[in-house]
Each structure stands twice: as structure tokens, then as C-alpha cells.
Amino acid sequence: MPVLEACRAQYGSLPLVERLSGAVKARNQVGIFPEINAVVKAVHVQNGDEVYQGQPLVSLRDIEFNERLNQARAAYRVAEAQARQAEAKLKEIEAELNRTRTLAEKDLTSKVELEAIETRAVLAEADVELARARVGQASATVAEQEEALTQTVIRAPVAGMVGNRNAEIGMMVGPGTRLFTLGQLDSVRVEVVLTDRMLNYIETKQRTEIQAANLPSGVLSASLSRISPFLHPITHSTEGEIDLANPGHYLKSGMFVTVDIFYGESEQATLVPLSALYENPLTGATGVYVGRDTLNQIPQEPSEADGTGSLTEPVPFEFVPVEILAKGRMSAGIRGVEPGDWVVTIGQDLLGGESGRAKVRPVDWTWVEQLQNLQREDLLQEVMKKQQSTGRDTAASGI
Predict the structure, then answer these.
(1) Residue 169 to residues 43, 44, 56, 76, 306: CA-CA distances in angstroms?
(2) Tell me: domain 39-60+152-178, CATH 2.40.50.100, correct?
């Protein structure tokens, strides 16, 4: 005698859900790049280290930069000395010019001599301006070399966690070399792709659920934070972003997660678990196995411990074709079955045909949902194992 599990159909509305794949990104996530070309002298942090803002991450070889700075400072001192020399010469010529003008007023010198000294004074003023400009240029060079020297120590621009290390001692690095990725994992952003069709009913502040296998609860809830108003000209899609807290750092940057966006509710209907829907192999019709009269008279109820009840005596079941009005993540709204009817959730293939008899273990919806979640996880693990096995076989065959 076959043994089945069954639960009562309910009445209500289904949440309308758009299921998407999302990518996790850390808050303030940035790539760390050097601003100069140099050789790595020391690496101060490792993957997974927590760093504070301004903490040294990498030290680059600074011998060349110290030499350039010393040369720049020496050139600055020379420029300053030349400027003082030009200023002293200008003062000397200005004094001589004043004496010559006094003599010219008394007709004790010629006009030609006065004009010659005035010309020398103009040239001396130009020499002073040129010397001061060279001082300014030398000062800018010193500041530039000082800045270059500070860039030999690469520091964390923000506090966060270090990852994607690509820095090794002795490496020649430059502005195009990414050394680390730095981000704050206490809170993360989940990014999803939204098509132009979805924008007709998906809006900011709608409730979302983020599902990942490594989350302790399995699911995190948050609101849709923002939607980019600019669509890609070819794909006609845009990005939605969800901000959420990540206190245990369970969500890692780059991780793919499942995102459900709840944007409304369906019409009121009879609700059954998705596992209750069954395609009859004889007719091809989709329906459920219902045990109405006899099973409804049995006072078996699921226990509070595991959501299941004791086995009943054999009871009859009948296959009832249904019309599916809407499907949710765990249940479906149907027409053709009354609320309160017992529907088979596991073991339909043991009945076969249009009707049959079987022993029944009554279960509640929580138990059915747990089983459905486990079935999804087992299926995912099976697919991943097949992919890994295929990859190993391909590698072994040399393809």
C-alpha cells in the first residue's frame, strides 16, 4: 500500500514575484592602483585583513624618488640664489640711475648716458622677474617630487576589508596594475538587471528577498533602494540596487544570489503547494490528487515537532484537473479545488491513473515549504556535481 503526504488547500492571494539573479558588491568597493611606476618593496596586508583609512598597504622602492627630490631641492636653492643675485644687481642699477638723474637735472651728465642707464635698469628688472619665475618653477618641481615620494607608500583610501591581492615583492607595477580590491562588507549592495518591460511594474521601495545558501536564515529582506533611469541602448535594460546590512559578512563581493522582487498580489483563489501540481501521464492534464470526503473526516493533524501527523488508514484519492491562475515561489493559485480539501504533495506517481487508494501522512504548509527548499538545494548541488564531473572528464580526455 503506497504512503503519501498531503496538506489542506488554502484560500488567499499569491504575491506577484519577479525572480532575478543578483550580484553582490561591497560598499565603497574600489580597486587599489599605484599612481607611479616602481618596484614593490613590501606588502603590508593580506587577503581578508581589515584596514583603517590611511593604513599603508604596499611600499614601493623609493631610492630613485629620493634622488629626484634631492636634485629638485638643489635646483630650487640655485634658483633662489640667482634670484637674490638679480635683485641685488637691480638695486645697484636703480641707485646708479637715481644719481644719474640728479646729475642730469643739474646738466652735469649727458642725456645719452641717462638713457643708457635707464635701459640697463629695465633689463635688470626683467632679469629679476625671470629669476623669480625660475624659483617658482623649481618650487613646483620640489612639490611634484615630494608628492611622487609619498606615492611610494600606497594607503587605504577608505576603511574596509582587503581582497584580490595581486601584489608581490619585486613586481614592477604601474598605474594599470591593480594591487588589491578594498571594500566595506558590513553593508553590501545587490545589483540586478531590469528590462524595460519590468519597469512597468517594478518600483523603488518594493520589498525584496535575497536568497543565498550560506546565509544562516537562508533569506534576507530589504527594499529596492534605487533604479538607474538610463537604459542600455542595445539591451534596453538598466540596473536596480538593493542596500542591506551584512553584519556576519556572509555575503561576499562578487557572489551571485537569487533576488525575489514582490510587486503586488494576484486575485483571490484556492492555494496549493507547487509540489501538489501533477501532470497526469495518461491525459497530459495538470491537476492535483484530492482526498475530499473520507480524508476530511479523519481528525489527524500535523504535530508541532516536525509538521507531520500519523499515518491514516487507506483512503481514496481522485485526480482533479485544475486551471492555474498564478504561480508564486512556493505555491500556486488554482481553480477546480475547494479550500480545505486535502491535496497530495508527495507520492502522486504512486497512485497512477485517475484515482487510487493510499495511506496518508497529514502535513502542514511549513513542512511542505521546507521540503521544496531542500529539493531546490539538492537539485542545484546535483547540477554542480554534474558540471564538475563533466569538466574532469573533459580534462582527462584532453579535449
Answers:
(1) 7, 10, 15, 34, 57
(2) yes
